[in-house]
């Protein structure tokens, strides 16, 4: 039986107050096991990014618990959260968020903290860049590569600290469909190769094909599986 790497318990997030109050997440509970490739799907405004931001410790819940690798993260101080986030979580965003003045290799090394010897880090970064097919581009500045290549670099950067979970919010949202497909396949193959947990938010479930799990968010509530009633409606 593989270990649980994430447990979300009775998570609630409320934005604003009074008339403008939004209940973005309502009593969300689920857990994820090591190596699972999980999609979070749902329509725009359903609460997908809010949920990912809570798991990524980028924002704090109004109530509820988020256990990452057994640690109850809501109990961590702001300082503890930063180092915990950097060591346990990898991030891939819709826009690759590379620093354009740095090379591709330097970008991949950015999340690596100084306690790792630089030679080891360098070797691991180069190996990751080979694995994502960017070996020949690694000494180029980040603004000299294509959007698809930038997203490959972002995947390598997200993996450099061997995180417990890689979180991706619409990682293909800014790519044409052919490039998007190669990025999806790359994430899936890296997940298999490294037994790496991925949690990916997308509004385009179709693009991902077969995955381990789908969690649907609807009006702030989470459901296991695909949104069947809507699918049937489309089929009719
Ligand atoms: N920082 C914020 N302040 C106020 N409301 C927010 C904030 N972030 C998100 N919301 C609201 O929470 C709901 C869920 O948003 P979000 O998680 O971004 O949805 P999704 O990613 O599924 O499109 C929406 O109604 C949105 O307007
Ligand atoms: Mg979103």
Structure description:
With 236 residues, this protein is an alpha/beta fold. It has seven helices and ten strands. It has a single domain (4-235), classed as 3-Layer(aba) Sandwich (Rossmann fold). Helix 4 (118-131) packs across helix 5 and helix 5 packs parallel to helix 6. The longest helix has 18 residues, at 177-194. The chain is globular. Mean pLDDT is 93; it is low at 231-236. Bound molecules: adenosine-5'-diphosphate and magnesium ion (MG).
Relevant terms:
single chain, binds magnesium ion, globular, 4-stranded antiparallel β-sheet, 236 residues, 6-stranded mixed β-sheet, Rossmann fold, alpha/beta, disordered C terminus, binds adenosine-5'-diphosphate, 7 helices
Task: Summarize this entry quickly.
The protein is of the alpha/beta class. It has helices spanning 48-55, 78-88, 104-109, 118-131, 147-159, 177-194, 228-235; strands at 4-15, 22-33, 37-41, 63-68, 71-72, 89-92, 165-169, 197-201, 213-218, 221-224.
Number of strands: 10
For the largest sheet, list the strands in their spatial order.
6-7-8-3-9-10
Distance between the termini: 40 Å
Roughly how much helix do the residues carry, as a percent range? 25-40%
What is the highest CATH level, the class?
Alpha Beta
Low-confidence stretches: 231-236
Helix and strand element order: EEEHEEHEHHHEHEEEH
Bound molecules: adenosine-5'-diphosphate, magnesium ion
Strand content: 25-35%
Write the layout of secondary structure elements.
Elements: E1 4-15, E2 22-33, E3 37-41, H1 48-55, E4 63-68, E5 71-72, H2 78-88, E6 89-92, H3 104-109, H4 118-131, H5 147-159, E7 165-169, H6 177-194, E8 197-201, E9 213-218, E10 221-224, H7 228-235
Parallel strand pairs: 3-8, 3-9, 6-7, 7-8
Antiparallel strand pairs: 1-2, 1-4, 4-5, 9-10
Helix pairs in contact: 4-5, 5-6
The structure holds adenosine-5'-diphosphate and magnesium ion.
